[in-house]
Structure formats: C-alpha cells, structure tokens
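Fold this sequence, please.
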Amino acid sequence: VNDLGKRYGSHWALHSANLAFFPGEVHILFGENGAGKSTLISMLAGAAQPTQGTLSIDRFSGYFRSVNEAREHGVWAVFQEFSLVPNLSVADNIVLGDEALNCCGLLDKVAARAEARALIERLGFDLDEKAVVGDLPRGKQQMVEICKAVRAVPRVLILDEPTASLSTHDTAALFDLLRRMKAQGTAIIYITHRMEEIAQLGD
C-alpha cells in the first residue's frame, strides 16, 4: 500500500497510508470508529477507488476498479455488509458465479450441495448447506460469506470484525481456520474492536 488516500469533498477519510502485508501473517487493524479502517479495506478490496496512491501485488501496480478485479488478484474481503442472495440456499450462495454444470448444461445442484457440505465440514462450521440464507441469523450468514471467500483460496483475506455475530463455537472454528490459512501462506488482514483477539491472532 503506497501513499494511499481517499478524500470526500475537502475531507480526507484516509491520508497517505503506507503499509506492507506479508504472506503467512495475521495483520490486525485496530482503532476507533472514524479512524479510516473501513475506508482502507474498501480500497484494498476494490469496493472504492482511491483519490491518491497505489496498491502493488506481484507485477500489478495501480488500484482495483472493482471487487471482481481485486479477486482476480487474489484479494478477498468479508465485509460487515453481506453480498448474499437471501432467497438462495447456503450451497447456492457459496458457489454463486462459479457453479458446476451437469451434462445437460444446467446448474448442477447436487454437485453444489456436495461441495458446500465438504467445505463446511472442513472449516468446522455449524451450518446447513440446504438452508435458505434469508432464514438464517446474522452469525450464520457471516459464516456463509467466509465460506465463499475461503473457497477461492485467497492470497489476501480481509475480515471486518468477523466475530461480532458469531457464537463461541463458530469463533473457535474461525480462529482454527485462520491459523491453517496462515500456515498455507495467506496474508490476513483482521479488523477487530476486541482487545483479546489481538493477542490470540495477531502477528
């Protein structure tokens, strides 16, 4: 992150940020409301474009013009505002945009459910792949978003206060997942207001 800034009118929401995020490390972003954390991660994830500065990853240097472009470079974010389709199942949401097709060229629902079930079991989440997302409490919806991001095997994973709505069981499963991803070389950017999580996760 090189001299990154975002201005709204005459107000700088973030000014001249310079940061480096490394593979296999959990980087904690910690600060009061209005400190610029959400502004920063929205630009890292392609959801907003900077007024100044650049992002660099491998041979890319510039800024992401969309969330899809960020994802093409391996940067995935799980925001507090979800990007789920409420009338679809958990499995359908997890594979959305990258669905398997059957021999007739139609969406393969059986394959989607099987993949979702295997992923959920691997992550250790308490989640039913057949459930309709709109019927789930917020904490379960958060887990669906995390499943979507992890399925893509991101190089950089951004989590914005992911445990705010999670149960103790699902929080423990998430922390185990992050430790595994860290060991596999994922760079993790973790926003939290919970002091105890800094010592538990942060490098």
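The chain has a mean pLDDT of 89. The CA atoms of residues 99 and 147 lie 15 Å apart.
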